[in-house]
């Protein structure tokens, strides 16, 4: 948020209603239970909607050795952007394969 408001780069305004936004500060002791979980989700969603995009670099490699084809791919998160606020939407890269014996 230190870089200011970020305008979303995609999406469609259906015009049906304004975004759901938190209207007041609350904490878990004030709300508790499902009320707190819903409030927390709304706050996270709102903050993520005005946060920078997540920036990743994807890499693919393919090569052949003695007629055998090998392919690999991976990604590196350069800037988590909104996924720092909503980690359940972050990229979960699979672990690299184990080294050969």
Task: Furnish the topology, listing elements before pairings.
Blueprint lengths: L27 H4 L1 H17 L5 E11 L2 E12 L22
Keywords:
single chain, 101 residues, alpha+beta, two-stranded antiparallel ribbon, 2 helices, 2 strands, elongated
Structural description of this entry:
The mean pLDDT is 82. By secondary structure, this protein is α+β, with helices and mostly antiparallel strands. It is elongated, with a radius of gyration of 20 Å. It has two helices and two strands. Helices cover 21% and strands 23% of the residues. A two-stranded antiparallel sheet has the order 1-2. A hairpin with a 2-residue loop joins strand 1 (55-65) and strand 2.
The oligomeric status of these chains comes to single chain
Category by helix and strand content: alpha+beta
Number of strands: 2
The strands making up the biggest β-sheet line up spatially as: 1-2
Element string (H = helix, E = strand): HHEE
The shape is elongated
Could you write a compact summary of the structure shown?
This protein has 101 residues and is α+β, with helices and mostly antiparallel strands. It contains 2 helices and 2 strands. The protein has a two-stranded antiparallel sheet.
């Amino acid at each position: 948020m230190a870089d200011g408001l970020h305008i979303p780069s995609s999406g469609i305004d259906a015009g049906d209603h304004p975004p759901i936004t938190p209207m007041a500060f609350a904490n878990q002791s004030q709300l508790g239970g499902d009320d707190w979980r819903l409030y927390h989700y709304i706050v996270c969603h709102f903050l993520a909607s005005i946060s920078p995009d997540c920036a990743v670099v994807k890499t693919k490699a393919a090569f052949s050795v003695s007629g055998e084809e090998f392919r690999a791919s991976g990604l590196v998160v350069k800037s988590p952007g909104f996924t720092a606020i909503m980690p359940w939407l972050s990229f979960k890269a699979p672990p690299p394969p184990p080294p050969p014996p």
